[in-house]
Amino acid sequence: MRVLGLDVGTKTVGVAVSDEMGWTAQGIETIKINEEKNELGLDRLRELVKMYEVESFVIGLPKNMNGSIGPRGEACQHYAEVVKEQFGLPVIMWDERLSTMAAERLLISADVSRKKRKQVIDKMAAVVILQGYLDSKN
Length: 138
Prior knowledge:
Blueprint: E1 2-8, E2 12-18, E3 25-32, H1 42-52, E4 54-61, H2 71-87, E5 91-95, H3 99-109, H4 114-137
Parallel strand pairs: 1-4, 4-5
Antiparallel strand pairs: 1-2, 2-3
Helix pairs in contact: 3-4
């Protein structure tokens, strides 16, 4: 049972996938999107779903620190609805507060250069989101 984890932004979607046992998350790629033009990277997601035989999605939900949901969270919820409609697979929304900061700390501790961090931060945030979800299930 593979799960695809997504960190949805306005310009990119970080993508991670679980192993077949649902224990670990690995970063795959960052998909370029354009929310304003409704270019959501669904064709590439479709390819990844088929390639990895994905059975469900975990999408990061950026809540405010007080637990409320702001405009970015609403945009992620909308993205989740589109994904659910397009793929007909279960979609789990996962509280992703501070996931990007955690990903940044991981990359800094691995001595990744600032330029390189910028290229992989969304993919790493997807890993943090998906791993948090997987850990909660095991």
